[in-house]
Prior knowledge:
Blueprint: H1 2-23, H2 30-38, H3 45-57, E1 61-66, E2 72-78, H4 85-101, H5 109-117, E3 119-122, E4 128-131, E5 145-146
Antiparallel strand pairs: 1-2, 2-5, 3-4
Amino acid sequence: METARALAASVAASLAFAASAMAAPAPQTDASHLATQYSEWAGGQSNADALVAGLRNGAPVTLVTNGADRSVSIAGFTPTAPMSYGAVSTALSTAQRSLAKLGISQPNAEQIQAALIGGEVVTSNGALVPVRGSVASRGGSGPVASR
């Protein structure tokens, strides 16, 4: 009888542990963590996912943003080489800060593109300001192709 109780207690404990393990959320990957961190700034989760995946894998990135005035902004570029998650984080953070210095907290697709690969940014007061680009300023493997 004592053995049966011990076995029942052991099974109950195992089931409780298994149930809590199944209920626990899966840990975020580096990619999903970065994308979540920049989704609002990038104009949505799909843009943030595209930025992180494209920069990480050296793959084409296409961004689409919608303005408050119902305007649509589309931009794209292809990084010249894959980047580590640390480099992706640094590039996005630097791009975000460079636009914030220009008074842009909710950039459109073209502004994000310029902040990452270089180009000109139109500010809220209509001024055209050149930016170097956080990916271009990393040095390394040459120009980044835009499209």
